[in-house]
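Entry 14. Two folds queued back to back today. First construct below, sequence then structure tokens.
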Amino acid sequence: MGETSQSGENASLKGNCNGVGKTTALRLVNFCLAANSNEGLKKIPKEWSFFLEFELNGQNHRIERSVGNNTLALDDKAIKLARLQKFFDGNGPFLIDKNVSGLSFRSLITRFMRHRREDISDEIYPVSSDQKPSDATIRSLYLLGAAYLLAERKKLNAVKLNNIRNQIKQYKEIKKNSRNNELGIDADLASHKQRLERLKAQLENMNIFEAFDDIRREIKDKEEKIETLFQKISINNYQLASINKALDYTPDMTADELKGLYEGLKKLFKESALEHFDKVEVFHKQMAENRTHRLECDKQQIQAENERLNNEYLHLKESAKRLEAQLKNRHSENEYQALLQEKNMHELEIERLGVVQKEIAALEQQQAKIRSIIANDNFEATKYVASSPLDCQSGLFQRLMLQFGEDIPAGISITANGGNNQIQFDLKVSAQSGKSTGITHEMTLAYDWLLLTHGSNHDLGFVWHDNALFADIDAGHRAKWMEFIYQNSIDTGKQYIMSINSENFEKSSPYWSEDILQKLQERVIMKLSGEKDTDKLLGIYFDDK
């Protein structure tokens, strides 16, 4: 019990019973029972060790564990954490079904000691960060004695289906690396096979000529020379055309034209200035004759060169033609090797795509088979639900809810989940007006006690409920539950541990008789207070939030 302080030097702690160690006590028990982490205890000095004494299968045991995990011992013998967990798995109190991977002492014990924040929520059977919804459901079905194996089978088959889908996706990614990645595998295979047949025929009919490459190089050399000659001839032809045009043009003046010009000049110049007309006429005539002679000479030279070039051109063309004739219907070794390499590439691609095709076909067959099994299991789940398998547990839960003092509809329902997921059954713990925090916590208390006293596959002897589950419950309801649980724990031989603030205890006390109040007060094992540090669980102020 966390007692409210009445005085104290620290005003911030006056009237406060939080941080005194109630939840810490629960976390320490969980820590000693082979929990993986000690996150909730991180503010405790690492060198501190804690001891837990418990009875299991008629034998007393003792665990010692340091916060820093430097020390871990079972019955004074050092032990590894994984080994300690296996000890609990193999020695009870849970009858672990080894065929169900998600079942272990650690995964089940937390159902009876809700020390995490997510344990105290709207989810009666919580889904924590370290488990999937399907695992949470399977564990609850296991403790209720329902068809957990059917639920486990769907989870495993759903996982297989997902793995197969991923494998098929990977194979299709391999297909994308193909040259014809836009085609389907069947069409792509057909395309490669057709090309392969054509290549085989080509290779069979190839006439390999050893000198093929040498002749091909010689032809190329001649073609280059032919091209050079053609360019030279074209240039010469252009020059000849220009000369012929120049010869047709006669810019020279005749004697009569020159004399007419001379007569006109007499009017402008003195006759003495024009007395050399005869000499000018002779000069002009000589110049015209020289121009024509020069052009004729150039023309003859170019024509002679063109004749020589044309002869060489025709000779090279004929020679190249004869060489081409030698290569007709013949192939080089390089051409053969190139086709052979392409043939090998198609053969490899056909083999690769064939493997992909077979693997996908095999995976799709497995997929169809698993879907068929899931469909049959869904049918079995529907039949199972129709048999009302949880009627007994639901009735017991309804009677437990009555212990809070109100007759409200409550129960546990199970329905088949035929969806494409890992969950075979939807399990629901509910009560009318269950949306209120108080009613939700009442359902949690009743559900945990039901699993402890009438659950299956375990022989656990205790449950621990923390103050957070009691704080929002109506004081009268809380009083009736505590009175009921006091007597019921005696009748069943089960240990009921509760951490509660004195304020919540005192608000419920008017609803008890003097006898019940006295008996409950006698059951207080430890009082923790914020009055001073020595009144706290660990002797120090400990903020465990």
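Second construct, same run, same settings:
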Amino acid sequence: MNLENHSFQEEGILPLEGEWKFTPNKFTLSETQDTILVSIPDSPNWNSYNRREDGKKGFGIGSYHLTINLPKEKIPLALDFDVIFSDCEVFQDQTKIGSLGSVGNANESIDIKPQLIYLLPSDKNQIQITVFVKNRFYRSGGIRIPPSLGIQKSLKTSREKDILKESIVIGGLFFLGFYQLGMHYTRKKIIGSLYFFFFCLIMSFQILTTGQKTLFLFFESNPSELVYRIDFFTQYASVILGIHYIHSLTKEYLSKQIIYISSGILIIPTIITIFGSVYLISSLHLYVLCVIIPILTVAIYLIFRYIRDKRSGFIYLGLSILLLVGFASHDITISLLGRTKPLLLNYGMLLFVFFQSIFLSKHISGEIVSAELKFKNASQQLIHSEKLSSLGVMVASVAHEINSPLSAVIMTSDSIRDSISTFFKELPYYEPIPKDCYPILVSLIDFSLSQVELLSGKEYRLQKQEISQTLQNLRIDESERMADLLVSLGLKNIPDEWASVFSEKRSDSLLVLAEKVVKILQDTNTIQIAANRAIKIAQALKNFTHFDPKEEKRTIHLADSIQNVIAVLAGYFKQGIQITTNFQQISPISCYPDELNQVWANLIQNAIQSMNGKGELKIEIGQTQKDGIIYVFVSIQDSGPGIPKEILDKIFDPFFTTKPVGQGTGLGLYISKQVIEKHNGIIEINSKPKNTKFTIFLPYEE
């Protein structure tokens, strides 16, 4: 090799590719009559020259010779034996300058650690490089990958760059792998993520064993046979895991039986890499590569279908896997052709890491948005479920509240029917009423219906006594009975213009008629009041149970919101609970009404239950200022026994409850706190015996 005019300053590293002199079956420092020319790396092995009687290909020894005309510039040079599969000793002008493993001791372990062998300074223009090679167990013997010649510094720099590149790829694979492992355990045991984790882990070891430079950052030496086994094992296992990972994304495109058969074929050589001899492993390698090619074709087909359907992240996911499969196919092909370079799988892995990182960043952001939407929907469903749970507790009270006015309607309607029936039956026996008496009749009816205050028993008796005396002074017969009629109609005194009418006998029919009409009209008024009461309860119940998962903020009066809840719970207040409200006049507030309704219901219901049906409940609405921020506050205070200090810090925890089983979900206060925080508000509690007070502060703007 003539390097007289070569500039190592411009090209610091030169692969020693081309023709070498080779002497098979012997160690010799000089050429012999058996010396021939071989081309490295075009001649993949020495098997055709080192024939063995036992038929085992690859075993043997040999000597490689290379004459180098040195460049004119005197610079420190070195040989870099990057990857060699055999023991060797290196000589410069018949002087040993380095070795890998041991060509003389078969029991010594093989040393495959990449190393630089420094050339000796020479005043000659030409040097002779001789390499003794001994192959122990690899089927392809001899130098298959040519060493490199270069400046010592350039070779070191190149090695450091390779280590950095491998470290980046390995680090990226570990990151992607453990991310997918986390996805597997947090996303309902996704099997594809588990496949991907093991694939990344296996490929990391593949790069460590094939590149080997990074491996020796952690180990000074390693058992060579184990490294070879890991190398072949990771090659086969990565194909099995990769095809399963791709199929997990594209299950609908291909039957899983085909995937199982494909991976099952590779299981046998994969097991052999663990238990078989290294010679057997290397002998089967080319045949296994022939099997891997169609499996990679299946993977390419699945990815093309994924890209064609434009599924999520198809550009980055598809491109990364196609590049990886493409470069892997390239390396397999050149291996089948007996060549050792250029190997591109590491570059494919680097691009795979890059594009998968982009894919995952988009996928993660999509997952976050999806998770937020799911969490929001789940929160809304939780609020609605708790609202329905609260409603179940209120059912008896609400049913009683609605049943009371309905009973009043039924009873009053029966009374009206009986009154009208009796009136028409007795009508023929009444004396005719003169036309001039009708204004008095109408006035008497209107006056009677306008009375809203009911007289007490004592007031009734005094009023009756006064009117009876007036009637006696007017010398009206049956003054006692007539006074009773007038007082029942609400009359407190007799106008002078009515005296002449009452003094006549026809006044009796007039009063009886007035009493009948007033009684019927009063009963209809009772029906109206009862019906309005039922409508109010139904409307309050409707407002309370209203749920709109897409509801946006609306402006409401907090007092109206709380009054709705009080109306629904009114049945409890009649059982012995005295309620007091103090609502200041405050402008409407922007909020989520349905969710706040649930907060008021939870707090008021808890207060009622804590008092066991007897006590005092105070509800207050007002405005205050905290830390320079204006808040509207709602306080709910009860006279119950209070909350024990030891559980005060737990009451807002989900599923924490002190109620008996079946009477509480333990979510009421937890949901209330979540709703208040959603409004950027604050919830505070002060509790002692007979005085427990919850105060909610909501940010407020005029």
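Quick look at the second one. The two ends are 92 Å apart (CA to CA). The first strand starts at residue 13 and ends at 15.
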